[in-house]
Amino acid sequence: MGDLSLPSLEDAFYAREAVEMERAGRVYTVTWNGLPTHQHPPLHLWLVSRAFAVLGERDFAARLPTVGLALGVLALTWRIGVLTVGPTAAVVGTACLLATPIFADNARRLMMEVPLAFWVSATVWLYLEARARPVWHLALAVPLGAAILTKSVLGLMPLLALVGTLASPELRVPLRRPWVWIGVALGLAIGASWPLHQWWTQGPDAVASHFLAHVARRSTRSFGLGVLREYPTILLKFFQPIVLPGLVGLWLVLRKPGPRRERGAVLCAWVALPLVLYSLAAFRTPRFVFPILPPLALLCGHTLATFVPRLAGLLASILVPAGVVAVGLAFWWNPLLLTRDANAAFKANASTIRALAPSGESVPYLGNHYWASASPLLYYAERHLAPSSRTGDAAIEAARRHGGRLLLVTRRRLPEVAALTVPQRVLLEGRDWVLLRVPRADDPPA
């Protein structure tokens, strides 16, 4: 959590936003390099900013909220499983979730997927758990509002999951009382507080920037039959090893009437409805459907507990715990065996870069992957990266005008600079970049 650097996309980007939020004491407005950005709501960044305030601006604090929420997802998955498919399938399903690489990888990142999965799971759990005390359904406002404040309209996913309650006379009972509807209405109001705040403080263009540029344009386009295979392909590629047993479990739950189908219908709706609805969007990615992992894992656990109970017990009691311990020890001993540390050079040389690059001046850049360097440069070294120059000549001229005469070049475009025969000195090197110093035009030759 502390030694590995943050990946550029999009962990270092989010971490920098959280740093600026913490320093400015803001709650709703998100900035990057001091400029407001309306790409996403602020809740998770605010949680990270609180971790920074308590523990200092370091990678351990940046990752801590996500790690805590990931552990919460595991706990909620188990409890939802107990309430729907039974305690045995709940334990096995939780083990399956922990053994799913896409979940384990995101559990130590700053992406919004794990936080959204937590708040969606918390909403579903609260609905199921509060049936004995209906007034508790007022508390649905908290996780539902938090889901919206984490991922905007994607935070409405728990409402899709709760459509599954219509299949069960037992689970439909709370819908006849006002508490659920009041809780949902309050949750929607909490979620709406962010765009209302942006409209009040920054004007309608701020709201339009989010909902038109970042939501509507990704959600609308002509529908073709080809989109029907995109999410199935995504599931098969990224949601292994639980996707196929999970789909079998969905069929097992729905195949015959009874209490298991009535309660398990919530899991089925939680998996199926987002896949169907999000397939209509213009942009399809595993990130959008990441919160279906808990119900998919529980359906996988139901399949294993039904057909291979001995293997399911072995998986939950020995294989997954042993695997988790082994992976944990490997990360503690030598994390580079299991992952890459792409921004180690930015992190290790942050103070050197600050000394070389004058504050307030953008570092000239020549490359094709701007955010891969811009995000860690600003997060670790607190220096802004200028947009890429078009040519090597333009990059050299920009470097000569820079106070530190610096030029950050990606290795793929380094030959363009070398071919100019301009004197240059390598100051720092990363895996994919080189930081050069070049002379001014009027400097005498060495």
SS class: alpha/beta
Largest sheet: 5 strands, mixed
Give the N-to-C terminal Cα separation: 46 Å
Total strands: 7
Major sheet strand order: 4-3-5-7-6
Q: How large is the count of helical segments?
A: 21
Arithmetic mean of pLDDT: 92
Proportion of helical residues: 55-70%
Residue stretches low in confidence (pLDDT < 50, at least 5 long) are: none
Concise description?
By secondary structure, the protein is α/β, with parallel strands linked by helices.
Description:
The protein has 446 residues and is α/β, with parallel strands linked by helices. It folds into two domains: 8-335, no CATH class; 344-437, no CATH class. Helices cover 61% and strands 6% of the residues. The chain is built from 21 helices and seven strands. Strand 1 and strand 2 form a beta hairpin. The model has no long low-confidence stretch (mean pLDDT 92).
